[in-house]
């Protein structure tokens, strides 16, 4: 079944809509519903039913040791599901909720065990999207929702991406149009004295530090020999079907070497794609060039990244060379996704 909810409606009208009521009923009965958030589309199940949550893992092919984020319609409901909301979490909630921030708390034990993968902590967020908020308020209890894609694939930023990956495996898709941020929420552990960034996302590290001061970064995000504390970060994610390689050097400085690399792969009978920003879209020729925003506008790159990676699959590219970005601001989140998608592979153009 596929239904559409208009994200432009007023909240009260949207909550009364047939689509929202139908979706809420499906969730309460243990079914799966995909819905838009301001980051990516989520695949939802009620977080108090182990059977319903198990449906998420089956539909996605997701490893069972990869815990899920629970979504709530209002900040006021968070205390019902976590042991305590530390003062620093209260500051972050006031600043960034509703919004693309997930916080890790000690949970009360009233969620299905497979939501947390048996851990004593739970990831919580309050999304900032009218369709998501209407649905969550109508359901009234937490909805567990990872990204609504096959595990390992680029996350969905449009309803059709969900359909491409999961049709036949869920009961309903709520279409709220393209998402706003394009990359997933930032994940921060607030169970210790100092918050720890576990996954960069829509809220930048700089914004977090501006809000609360000291914020540590999980060493597993920057050191390949250290296992990330966030279980989901140890898996390859966001990957297109083609073989993705990252180009560290500024493209204008390695133009000729990059052209040789493209021709070398084409000579082997491979179709080559380039993932570029608008500043470089005409610099090097390949079988397919996909532009994902502009370097001068990091949000535009984040918004278009997953759509671009999926485009290479649609066009059957065998090899993809991608621009890289500085490790700062929203580009830090983009680079985290690109590194995971490429499996850390860097194209050495100086050989």
TrEMBL record:
Keywords: ATP-binding, Cytoplasm, Nucleotide-binding, Nucleotidyltransferase, Transferase, tRNA processing
Residues passing through the membrane, by range: none
Signal peptide segment: none
PROSITE patterns tied to this protein: YRDC
Catalytic activity: L-threonine + hydrogencarbonate + ATP = L-threonylcarbamoyladenylate + diphosphate + H2O
Domain YrdC-like: 17-203
EC number, as in UniProt: 2.7.7.87
One Gene Ontology MF term: L-threonylcarbamoyladenylate synthase
SUPFAM superfamilies to which the protein is assigned, alphabetical: YrdC/RibB
NCBIfam families from the UniProt entry: L-threonylcarbamoyladenylate synthase (TIGR00057)
Family: Belongs to the SUA5 family.
Functional description taken from the UniProt entry: Required for the formation of a threonylcarbamoyl group on adenosine at position 37 (t(6)A37) in tRNAs that read codons beginning with adenine.
PANTHER family per UniProt: SUA5 (PTHR17490), THREONYLCARBAMOYL-AMP SYNTHASE (PTHR17490:SF16)
Protein name: Threonylcarbamoyl-AMP synthase
Lineage, highest ranks first: Bacteria, Bacillati, Bacillota, Bacilli, Bacillales
């Amino acid at each position: 079944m596929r239904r559409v909810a208009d994200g432009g409606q007023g909240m009260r009208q949207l909550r009364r809509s047939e689509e929202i009521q139908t979706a809420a009923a499906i969730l309460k009965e243990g079914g799966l519903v995909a819905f838009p958030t301001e980051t990516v589309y989520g695949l939802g199940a009620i977080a108090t039913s182990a059977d319903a949550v198990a449906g998420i893992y089956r539909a996605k092919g997701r490893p069972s040791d990869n815990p899920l984020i629970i979504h709530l319609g209002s900040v006021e409901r968070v205390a019902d599901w976590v042991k305590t909301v530390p003062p620093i979490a209260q500051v972050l909630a006031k600043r960034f909720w509703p919004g693309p921030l997930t916080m890790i708390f000690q949970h009360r034990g009233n969620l299905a065990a497979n939501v947390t993968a048996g851990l004593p902590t739970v990831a919580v967020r309050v999304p900032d999207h009218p369709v998501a908020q209407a649905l969550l308020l109508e359901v009234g209890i937490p909805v567990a929702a990872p990204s609504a894609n096959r595990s390992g694939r680029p996350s969905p930023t449009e309803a059709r991406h969900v359909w491409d990956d999961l049709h036949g495996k869920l009961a309903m898709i709520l279409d709220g149009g393209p998402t706003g941020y394009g990359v997933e929420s930032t994940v921060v552990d607030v169970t210790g004295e100092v918050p720890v960034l576990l996954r960069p996302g829509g809220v930048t590290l700089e914004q977090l530090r501006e809000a609360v001061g000291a914020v540590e970064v999980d060493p597993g995000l920057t050191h390949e020999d250290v296992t990330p504390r966030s279980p989901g970060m140890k898996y390859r994610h966001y990957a297109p079907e083609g073989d993705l390689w990252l180009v560290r050097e500024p493209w204008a400085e390695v133009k000729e070497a990059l052209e040789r690399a493209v021709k070398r792969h084409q000579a082997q009978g491979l179709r080559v794609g380039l993932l570029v920003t608008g500043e470089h879209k005409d610099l090097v020729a390949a079988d397919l060039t996909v532009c994902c925003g502009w370097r001068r506008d990091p949000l535009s790159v984040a918004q278009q990244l997953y759509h671009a990676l999926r485009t290479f699959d649609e066009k059957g590219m065998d090899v993809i060379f991608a621009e890289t970005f500085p490790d700062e601001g929203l580009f830090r989140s983009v680079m985290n996704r690109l590194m995971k998608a490429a499996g850390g592979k860097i194209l050495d153009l100086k050989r």
